[in-house]
Amino acid sequence: MPQSEDGTRTVVGRYRALVSARTIAFDPLQAELARRLDDLDQALARSDLAAKGSALGWLFGRRAPQRETLRGLYVHGAVGRGKTMLMDLFFECATVTRKRRAHFHAFMADTQDRIHRTRRAILDGRLKGDDPIAPVAEEIAAETRLLCFDEFAVYDIADAMILGRLFQKLFELGTVVVATSNVAPQRLYWDGLNRALFLPFIDLLGRHVDVFELLSPNDYRLTKTDGDEVWRMPLGPVTDAAMEEEWFRITGHRPAPPEAIPFRGRTIEIPAAADGRARFRFHDLCEKPLAAADFVQIARRYHTVMIENVPTLGPDRRNAAKRLINLVDALYDCRVKIVVSAAAEPGALWTGTDGPESFEFARTVSRLTEMRSREYAGEPHGTGEGSLAQDRLEAHDAADEDPDDAVRQASDT
Question: Alpha carbon of 255 to those of 11, 77, 258, 275, 285: distances in Å?
Answer without folding.
Answer: 47, 45, 10, 10, 22
